[in-house]
Amino acid sequence: MTKLKAILAAIGFAILMVLGAFGLGSMRGREKAEAKADKQRTDDNAAATKAAAERRVEVTKEASNVQQTVSHMPDDDVDRELRGNWTRKG
């Protein structure tokens, strides 16, 4: 009976060790996946911030160009452009 108990205890211990190894592997895999997802979020946020800054620069440059064009136009031409482009149709 003692040998049977020892064999069953060894089998139980082996099963617990295998389950523990699977559990540790799962935890490590989850940690790696979470780290990868965090890095992806950081990269996406950086790309979005860069794109927004580029759009802001472009809009500022275009506004400056428009302001310069308007300041060099005679008043009558400015009035005509505004009436032609910025009045409601109909």
Can you describe what's shown?
The chain has 90 residues and is mainly alpha-helical. It has one domain (2-86). The chain is 92% helix and 0% strand. The longest helix is centred in the middle third of the chain and has 71 residues, at 2-72. The relative contact order is 0.04. The mean pLDDT is 86. Residues 30-44, 52-61 have a biased composition (Basic and acidic residues).
Which helices and strands, and how do they pair?
Blueprint: H1 2-72, H2 75-86
What is the total number of structural domains?
Answer: 1
What order do the SSEs take from the amino end to the carboxyl end, as H and E? HH
Helix/strand class: mainly alpha
| Beta-strand percentage range | under 5%
Radius of gyration: 35 Å
N→C terminal distance: 102 Å
**Low-confidence regions:** none
Number of strands: 0
- Counted by DSSP, the helix tally is 2
* Main beta-sheet annotation: none
Q: Per the principal axes of the C-alpha atoms, what is the gross shape?
A: rod-shaped
Average pLDDT works out at 86
Counting copies of identical and different chains, the oligomeric state is single chain
The percent of residues in helical segments reads over 70%
Describe the structure in brief.
Helix content is 92%, strand content 0%.
